[in-house]
Sequence to fold (323 residues):
Amino acid sequence: MLVDNYDRPWLKLRIVVDSVCNYRCLFCHFEGQSKFLGRELSAEDIGFTASVAKELGVDDFKITGGEPLLRRDIVKVVDEINKVNPKDLSMTTNGYLLDIYAKDLLEHGLNRLNISLHSLDRGKYRFITGVDALDKVLDNIEYASNLGFKQIKLNMVVLRGLNTDEIPMMIRFAAKYGFALQLIELMPMGDGFPIFARYYDDLSDIISWLNKHGKLIGTRKDLHNRPLYEVDGVRVEIVKNYNNPTFCAGCTTMRLTSDGKLKTCLYKEPAVDLWPYIKNRDREGLKKAMIYANSLRRPNFIEGASGSLERIRVKIRVGNLAY
Fold:
């Protein structure tokens, strides 16, 4: 297992498999990469990279995009990653094409799904995503729920004054199918930057509501120290990523972009170019490049008014991580 200079282990790899999407969401951060790239890793390239990451202690892989289901060989991508026998293999999707791919994805080793669902109101959904597809996505969600995935989690980006009133309704919807719910703080990057001032919600009122109507049941010590609540039998996870040293202290993730770069942080560079090592199947070279990237990892939100004291607090918190 690799550990960075802040005692944070590298346990998870987010794999961006494409840079295109059939949605136009208000807030998309594109996983920190450009929208359109001139080169793209093949399914075999991704599988090779996953196998080397596995040798370094990474055992949790998340497929994302863009919209990963727009990639025609997405089932092969899943199959290639599954060959390394990961502990967990999941995907984030907008759900639009799940009726076509969900069954094959499950049969080829995908354990879990994260489905973006930012509103249950057709007009709001269209406004947020740029696509009038709520009914189709709800049908696809129901279809996927009957297939037998280990877990389905709904991702809801919280937008102040737009969908905050729908959170109780979203919890009831999740309860109906036995889903988990992830409430995500808006990030000031990508398309989220120009709308940040208008729609940003720091989640404090929502957390107060969760404490009143549910209970805190723990934290995701393996992933950003995310608080976990239970409301009416639904597990609700809070993703509070902006200006949050505790979030950064619990980061165990790096990102592989679709053009073969390893990003140490969503918010910033550096990104280490793995492309030549991947294409040449240079296992030792790739391993060294990954180790180098890990050495560059640094919490984005760490130095504020408290300076070095905040750094000390981060290191103490990381020391309590459960591997």
The first strand starts at residue 12 and ends at 16. Residues 283-296 form the longest helix (14 residues). Residues 11 and 58 are 4 Å apart (CA to CA). Residues 303-323 have pLDDT under 50 and may be disordered.
